[in-house]
Amino acid sequence: MTGTVERAGLIDDVESRLRRVARTVRRSMLDAMPDGEPVRWLYGPMREYPSRPGKALRPALCLSAGRAFGADPNELLGIATAIELLHNAFLVHDDIADGSEMRRGRPTLASTHGMAAALNAGDGLAIVASGVLRRATRTLDRDLADLVWGEFDTMALRTLEGQAIEVGWQIDNVEDVGPEDYLNLIMHKTCWYTTIHPLRVGAIVGSRGTVDLAPLVRFGFHFGAAFQIRDDLLNLVGDERAYGKEILGDLYEGKRTLALVHLLSSARGADLDLVRDHLRRSRAERSADTVRAIRELMDTYGSIAFTIEYAEGILMVAEQYFEQAFADAQPGPDLDFLRALVPYVWARWR
Amino acid sequence: MTGTVERAGLIDDVESRLRRVARTVRRSMLDAMPDGEPVRWLYGPMREYPSRPGKALRPALCLSAGRAFGADPNELLGIATAIELLHNAFLVHDDIADGSEMRRGRPTLASTHGMAAALNAGDGLAIVASGVLRRATRTLDRDLADLVWGEFDTMALRTLEGQAIEVGWQIDNVEDVGPEDYLNLIMHKTCWYTTIHPLRVGAIVGSRGTVDLAPLVRFGFHFGAAFQIRDDLLNLVGDERAYGKEILGDLYEGKRTLALVHLLSSARGADLDLVRDHLRRSRAERSADTVRAIRELMDTYGSIAFTIEYAEGILMVAEQYFEQAFADAQPGPDLDFLRALVPYVWARWR
């Protein structure tokens, strides 16, 4: 375990590098936006999320993994930009599906422009992402380009599958969800497109398709799971300004997070009835008082502590898999950055 | 002008050919669907619209234009399937944005599975469409494949632009819309992806990129406009069972169709106030009585007659442009079918 001072330095280094990537990728995303009409109802809304400060974790992973496996940095920027654009497309549609109000510290597209305009903006971002990826892969050998495209399609479908499972659990008010169901959910919903895909596609381009993908997937899964569980925790214990989304929003939405899964399996009597009654209601019928009461039950029953312990176990496994996943990568600042990202995702507040 | 008997024969021929294409493309679409989970919340809903009987106009245009310009039929089926899949993706999202209840004679996805599941299903169909197009273009020369992909991205963006303009007019309750604004709207919203793109991409593949696209665009625009105006008319005067959508649904949604544009510019006094008041309300606040009253005003002020006359003018121009657009095409059943489609789209009831 690193000390407090050392850890603070690590976080600063990681964040300053992420900020650099975010700036570059933001410029690249906005440059890719079509210069057409209607600005007011389509192209204006499409620029909003990409203009807001994002973490840039996904493009940073792709760029660093790619370079660590020998890629020319120029051939990766377009691919990293396409990943971040598709991420923005997902965010726009997820915010509609979830009825979310805040994203990256500002109102969601649906809450300012209406659902229909937000729906179109999300579709538009996905189309622009494809166009960017197409231009980026034109310089690659055709088989390698096909490989990258296959990865992209798989990633997009995995993410949708996860999103659909989560929505389905809420629609059907599924209560018998265990930690392993939760892990399967976030493997699809988060890990594939947040960590596994950016790492894989960077490594594939860098190694010209020769890399062993299995250990990368294992590492990416554990790393991405730690990232998602941290996200769930920030939604419960975070600071809204740093986090950029509504605190306790997941409880309003009835999302089956690890803490809620734990609470459902450990709460008893009137406490369990309270949670179940809350989940049976529609979002509009859920009260702030009940949300706060459930949040307190999570302390009473140790659901927060359980979540932290669970995630720390996953994080240790991720650290073990790291060396195996990058055994054939070149040592240097890219590999150091990737290694530092593992504790970073667990220490972050945004 | 052809006689009634001759015209009935023409409609039968066109419809039997469209049915054949619909069967082939439906099978091809369903074969392309991933065989994964969750079926209940994603892959099941994704199969619903492609399983319902559609007109198959778009794939039929692509296949026939392609063969008329010399394409091998096998190399076009995947492209035609991708176009129809993207069309289905658009329908799913449009039905969400418009709050529609019926599609192809059955409830919309959003009304049976909820908005969030429908949103995911539309995204999924678009991803599968990309995958199908990717496999279909793999056998083409790489430059030709890039050309096809460029066409696909342009088409998708044009459609979104049109969809966004239409939604924007409704959100801002725009009243000063003339026939030329309406034509610009449907050029984007309908013509590009319904007629222009399928014809262009078929011709590009058939001619190996050597075809002159300008006359095809001119023909496709007028042909597509006649198709859309017919669709608007069927929404006002059609038979719900054949049409498959709610009759008068456009009036509930406040869509700026040519008939409504005409009524807004010709109604006077209390009649105009009635229309304006209706349009200012949200969809939920619009009454069936007012919708019927507005429908009657369209007869009183000659808005239906104006729309018919306007469309017949456009149809004549389409017929004139047809010969120019297909001057280099091979005579035969494909060219005959394409020629017969022009009067067909204006005579159709579904």
Characteristics of this structure?
mainly alpha, globular, 2 strands, 16 helices, two-stranded antiparallel ribbon, Farnesyl Diphosphate Synthase, 350 residues, homodimer
Describe the structure in your own words.
Chains A, B: Its cofactor is Mg(2+). Chains A, B: This is Geranylgeranyl diphosphate synthase, type II. Chains A, B: Pathway: Isoprenoid biosynthesis. The structure is a homodimer of 350-residue chains. The first copy, chain A, contains 16 helices and two strands. With 350 residues, chain A is mainly alpha-helical. Chain A has one domain (4-347): Farnesyl Diphosphate Synthase, CATH 1.10.600.10. Chain A has a two-stranded antiparallel ribbon with strand order 1-2. In chain A, a hairpin with a 2-residue loop joins strand 1 (102-103) and strand 2 (106-107). In chain A, helix 2 crosses helix 6 (115-137), helix 3 (57-68) packs antiparallel against helix 4 (73-98) and helix 12 (258-266) packs across helix 15 (303-325). The longest helix of chain A has 30 residues, at 142-171. The interface between A and B is large, with 39 and 39 residues.
Mean pLDDT of chain A, as a whole number? 94
What would CATH call the class of chain A? Answer: Mainly Alpha
Integer tally of domains of chain A: 1
Low-pLDDT segments, ≥5 res of chain A: none
Helix-strand topology string of chain A: HHHHEEHHHHHHHHHHHH
Query: What fraction strand of chain A?
Result: under 5%
- Proportion in helices of chain A: over 70%
Keywords (chains A, B): Magnesium, Metal-binding, Transferase
Pathway (chains A, B): Isoprenoid biosynthesis
GO molecular function (chains A, B): metal ion binding; prenyltransferase activity
Protein name (chains A, B): Geranylgeranyl diphosphate synthase, type II
